[in-house]
Structures are given as structure tokens and as C-alpha cells.
Write a structure and sequence with these properties.
Layout: H1 2-5, H2 14-28, H3 31-39, H4 47-68, E1 75-77, H5 81-92, H6 97-116, H7 119-126, H8 129-151, E2 154-157, E3 161-164, H9 170-187, H10 193-214, H11 230-234, H12 248-252, H13 254-282, H14 295-312, E4 317-319, H15 323-328, H16 334-349, H17 351-355, H18 359-374, H19 386-402, H20 405-422, H21 431-448
Antiparallel strand pairs: 1-4, 2-3
Helix pairs in contact: 2-16, 3-4, 4-14, 4-16, 6-13, 6-14, 8-13, 8-18, 8-19, 8-20, 9-10, 9-18, 10-18, 13-20, 13-21, 19-20, 20-21
Length: 449
């Protein structure tokens, strides 16, 4: 293991990496429940088939990450992209499941080509330092707001957009208790403290639920105790819909198909770039000049995952920001990813256990990760070149407020390029930044039209 993943060189151990891999999996296991709920209702798909496709594609892509790049980054069907697949392409636009899968497949092929020509690798390495730190800090805030919303600590409000949730509810109280517990464990430098925090919070929740049930109080919407009956296990087994494509639609309506592919492509490119920058910087894997070694391998794993996912019948596979939970637990190499990939395989059999993990149990871990990621803001320059200052600032604030990593990067890069031109520093703009600017311009036009 040491020779394969260079554990000593990265200052880690087998035990730490395995614990980190399990932590990452628990932080993102929700996708095994969410993706079948989103895609399973589409004509031509079933929840069980989507579950299998999600688990298998996540395992393959994450294991590819382990061996292609030796990075502690996990992949699975992306949130946001699965919603666009189900509710926009197959819902509002009225296209079939096969057409949407074909678009994801073509997007993946384009990704592989872009990775071979090192376009995405150049993008990762040529983004200015201030923007990179801003992206990392922005992801920290993005993770934080996702965790707070999922656990009900923060809720939507017509009057103020967001508001404090029911602070007397059991999930909210347990989310806070879990964060404090992780804080104590981290202070005492307990190995696997974040993983222990997730499991301990879940167990406390089960105890609270049992007491509540005994007193006739319904404190949680669902049972926190997993069912291991044969029926519950068997319900998740179904063969994925292999190669369920409709290439004829490309000739039939090329313009519509091109827009669908571009939207998938644009979102996945910049989501992946942002996640990769944030996770690897926090893991200390970036070089002093900000470039990432083996970035090409990481991006190829992402591209292969998307193609495999489409062939199995699921939406775009992408890198997960929840990988930062494993990094916070000490993960620094591909052994973390290999462990996470194996956990996805195990989840096929023990799905009821992992699907029973409540959001309030993973919320404390994600909040702690948010703290660590946000700390990158101290490395940002807020004096000097105005393009770096405003570009970095917009990258930080637009990710959580627009609820999108790609949107945060878009505002950061577009403002950076415009300000460089307006301040007479056009020579500072690299070719890859011009190409990125052009991609964003095309995307903005498609939104306006």
C-alpha cells in the first residue's frame, strides 16, 4: 500500500486513509437515496435500476480516481446535474430518458477528448491564485449552507429568503450537539474523530427516537433504525439499463441536443474544476505555485465515470465536495478513494443501513469541513490588483448564494477578465482564461435566450 499510494511520502497511514474513505462515503451516501428518487420516476427507468447504476458508476469512477491520480477525491452522480436531467430535460423540455442519457454519454466523450488534450488540466493550473483561494473558501460556505438546509437548522423564508429553523426540534439540536462533539474530538486529536462524530450523532438520535416513541412523541419523520429484512435488501436489486441511448435524436433535432449537451458539459467542467481545486488544496497536494500534479489523471477519472454512468443509465458522474470530509479526517492519497469506492460496492448489499443515516448525523461533519475550507480566505489578497480582489470575492460569495460551484467560478473568472482588460493588464490573461471567458459568455447567452 505504501508503494502503491506513497503513504509515507504524504505523511499518512493505511488506518488513517481507510477511516477517511469511510468518512467520505458516509458524507455522500445520501446520493444512493436521492438519485433513484429523482431519476426513478422517469419513463423507462426504475428506482432499483437507478440505485444500482448510481452505486456501480460511483464505485468505478472513484476507484479510477485512486489509481489515475492518487487523490482522496470521490465521485458519483452529481447533485444539480441529476435534477437538470430529471426535471428539466425529461420534465419541462419533454425529452425521453434515452435522449438525456445520450447527451450525458456524448458529454463524457467530449470530456475524455478535452482531458487527452489537457484543456481541463490547463484550466485547473492557470486559474489565478486569488481565485483558487476564493474557490476553496466559497466551497466551504457552499458546503455549510447545504448542511444547514438539509438538517433544518436553516429553512427557506418568503420574508427574508432564509431563516433559523425550529431550534427546539430534535434534528436541529442533534446537528449542533454533533458539531460540538466533533470539536471536542478534534481538540483531543482523536483518530477518526469526524467519523466517530457521525456515528455517535446517529446513535444518539436512535436513542432519542426510542425514548420519544415510548413517550408517544414523533420526533423524526423517518425511522433511524435500519431494516435488514430480506425484502428491504432485495428491493434495491435490479439490472441497470445498459446502453439505453437514442442517437437518432441527434440528427432529428441537433440544435436542441447541442444545448442539452452544452449545459451538462459547462456545469460539469467547472463543478469538477472547483471541487478538485478545493479538495486538493485542503489536502496540501498543490505545489507552491498553485498547480496540481496529476490533475490530468483526476480529470480523466471524472470523464470515464461520466461515460460509464451513462452506459449504466445514470446522470453525469462528477467529483464530490463531500470528499473534503475525508480530507479533514486525514485522507491524502488514493487509498482514501479506493476505500470509498469499495464502500459503494458494499452499499449494494447493505443499502438499508447506509440509507438510514439521517442528514443531522452528517451535518456536523460537513459544518466542520466548512470551517476548514473557509480558512483558505486568510490566504487571499484583498489589497493590490483589483481584478484579483473582486474576482476572488465573487467566487467566495456567489457559490453559496447562487447555490452552485460553477456559478461562483463563472462570476469570478468573468469579472477577473473584464477588470484585467479595463485596467490595461490584458497581457496577464492566459489563453485558457480567454477560452473560459468565452464559454461563460456562451452560457450566459443561452440563459438569456
Amino acid at each position: 500500500m505504501d508503494k502503491l499510494f506513497k503513504l509515507k511520502e504524504n505523511g499518512t497511514s493505511v488506518r488513517t486513509e481507510i477511516l477517511a474513505g469511510i468518512t467520505t462515503f458516509l458524507a455522500m451516501a445520501y446520493i444512493l437515496a436521492v438519485n433513484p428518487a429523482y431519476l426513478g420516476g422517469i419513463e423507462g427507468a426504475t428506482p432499483a435500476a437507478i440505485f444500482m447504476a448510481t452505486a456501480i458508476s460511483a464505485a468505478i469512477a472513484t476507484i479510477c480516481m485512486a489509481f489515475f491520480a492518487n487523490y482522496p477525491v470521490a465521485l458519483a452522480s452529481g447533485m444539480g446535474l441529476n435534477a437538470f436531467f430529471a426535471f428539466t430535460v425529461c420534465g419541462a423540455m419533454g425529452y425521453s430518458y434515452k435522449v438525456a442519457l445520450t447527451a450525458v454519454f456524448i458529454e463524457g466523450i467530449i470530456f475524455i477528448v478535452l482531458s487527452l488534450f489537457k484543456f481541463r488540466e490547463a484550466l485547473v493550473n492557470k486559474i489565478p491564485k486569488n481565485l483558487k483561494f476564493g474557490i476553496t473558501a466559497g466551497i466551504g460556505l457552499f458546503i455549510t449552507i447545504i448542511a444547514l438546509l438539509n438538517s433544518g437548522v436553516i429553512v427557506s423564508s418568503e420574508a427574508t429568503t432564509v431563516a433559523l429553523g425550529d431550534i427546539g426540534s430534535a434534528p436541529v439540536i442533534l446537528s449542533v450537539v454533533g458539531l460540538l462533539l466533533i470539536g471536542v474530538l478534534q481538540h483531543k486529536k482523536v483518530p477518526g474523530g469526524i467519523l466517530i462524530g457521525i456515528i455517535a450523532t446517529w446513535i444518539i438520535g436512535i436513542i432519542v427516537q426510542l425514548i420519544g416513541n415510548a413517550c408517544g412523541a414523533e420526533l423524526f419523520a423517518n425511522s433511524l433504525i435500519p431494516s435488514l429484512s430480506w425484502d428491504s435488501i432485495k428491493s434495491n436489486f435490479a439490472a441497470p439499463a445498459l446502453f439505453n441511448f437514442d442517437f437518432g435524436f441527434i440528427v432529428k433535432d441537433f440544435a436542441a441536443f447541442a444545448i442539452i449537451v452544452f449545459t451538462f458539459l459547462y456545469t460539469d467542467i467547472f463543478d469538477t474544476v472547483g471541487t478538485l481545486i478545493g479538495v486538493t488544496q485542503k489536502a496540501g497536494l498543490a505545489k507552491e505555485d498553485g498547480t496540481l500534479p496529476r490533475a490530468g489523471g483526476a480529470l480523466m477519472a471524472d470523464a470515464v465515470g461520466t461515460v460509464v454512468g451513462a452506459c449504466l443509465g445514470t446522470s453525469t458522474v462528477t467529483s464530490y465536495v463531500e470528499s473534503t470530509a475525508g480530507v479533514a479526517a486525514g485522507g491524502k492519497t488514493g487509498l482514501t478513494s479506493l476505500t470509498t469506492g469499495i464502500m459503494f460496492i458494499i452499499a449494494i448489499i447493505f443499502a438499508p443501513v447506509f440509507l438510514a443515516i439521517p442528514s443531522f448525523a452528517t451535518t456536523p461533519a460537513m459544518l466542520y469541513v466548512g470551517i476548514l475550507m473557509l480558512s483558505a480566505i486568510k490566504n487571499m489578497e484583498f489589497e493590490g490588483d483589483i481584478a484579483d480582489v473582486i474576482g476572488g470575492f465573487l467566487a467566495v460569495v456567489m457559490m453559496p448564494f447562487a447555490y452552485s460551484i460553477a456559478t461562483g467560478i463563472m462570476f469570478g473568472i468573468v469579472s477577473w477578465v473584464i477588470l484585467k482588460v479595463c485596467t490595461g493588464k490584458i497581457k496577464d490573461i492566459s489563453a485558457i482564461m480567454w477560452v473560459s471567458f468565452a464559454l461563460f459568455a456562451v452560457y450566459i447567452v443561452t440563459l438569456v435566450i
